[in-house]
Amino acid sequence: MFSYAGNALTRLTFSNGIEREHRSELTGSSRSKRSHRQVTLPLRTYAARTRPYSSADATKFLDARKLPFLRATKVINCCSSLSMRDSGSSGATGTAPVGTNRNTAAQRVGRAAVDWQSLGFGFTPTNCYVKAVWREQTGTWSPVEVVPYGPNGEATFPLHVASTALHYGQSIFEGLKAFACADGHVRLFRPQENARRLERSALRLNMPVVPAALFLEAVTRCVYENLEFVPPYVEQGGGGSLYVRPVLFGSGGRIGLGPADEYTFMVLVVPVGNYYKGGLSPVTAYISTNYDRAAPRGVGHVKVAGNYAADLKPSMEAKQRGYPINLYLDAREQKFIEEFGTSNFSAVRYLDENGNRYVYVTPDSPSVLEGVTNKTLMELSLDAGMKVERRRIPVEELATFDEVFASGTAVVITAVDQIVYGDQVIGIGKHPGSGQVGPVARRLYDTVRGLQTGRLPDRHGWTYLVA
Question: Residue 379: CB partners within 8 Å, gap ≥ 6?
Fold first, then answer.
């Protein structure tokens, strides 16, 4: 249970009607009475950030007075005795939280002409995408623009023939999801983390940073404009989701090596089901010993498009051998686990040599991408009383783990019960190859899915209301 002492619940409304919840600290006399206020915010452009992200920035973009395109419409003072779960979840207790546009979501979610029972993980044209453009001459981002797809689903746009994205690989992206929830609302899961990671990626590739406020507005706006394509809520938890793909790329032309004079930030969405056909069912992984995913001081720690292009051949070779997922070792020594082709590596030991029960282990490497899902799983493991270790993992240690799984936005968790390493087949756990999912992987998976769809109370404040 959370206790919010002296906080205000604020309903924030986009200029096009989007609403979401916001908490801000009340001070002075505002604590002692119910407060109603109206704040009008001017339309403005976004200046490019030139310094790393900080905790102070996180506070700024959650402050209603500084969020562009938003207006605070109502504030309800919550006394110190009020206890509640997520203010937007169906499990809230005490005084009813500020409402949101639930009717809009209920009327639109799942109304697209899509076979929801046969969702895969591919591109489906929706209503539109959104974009904003940064230009060197102004040094600012334009307002978010909604761009409809063509009448027959055409999803193309003009691009400069000399764009730095095409010629020099100046392209980064993110991946997150929106869900129809048990209480009738639609929510994003941890979008602030994706905003922070996109910033780190932009700084590494010498690109203008997308401010967190712009990122949040763009992803929220794109989901809202495409609510019909959000897969409907399924009580049993097996429903799909709306995959959200923000992309930042150099759209300006330059032949000489250097940064572009124009960058485009684009967000598109697609309804998706499971990334792998078997869902959580265990798979056999293949260690790609002939390839390196990333160099120690390269760009493996950021979400650069080229990292995934480099994995296409190793991944395809693994699939041709019959293995749906491949695993990389470190580039320097080829001795330590790095990560799977498209996911982070995680392992569980039920009892370690020091008598610690249930230890969650994940690699610590400068060339591994910091996954939002892996971070979530680590925090949930700590909540459950498990020990969490981020350290180097020798390949010989694989055989000692009770569970191994890949984690990422697309899959949440994919259990791995066998790993092929050269001529060896390394069994994981007591029953490798049996198709059984370990209890820790199952519990973590069910917890994440419960949080994403509102079946469990959001104690950490990870979900972000859209409609």
Answer: 460
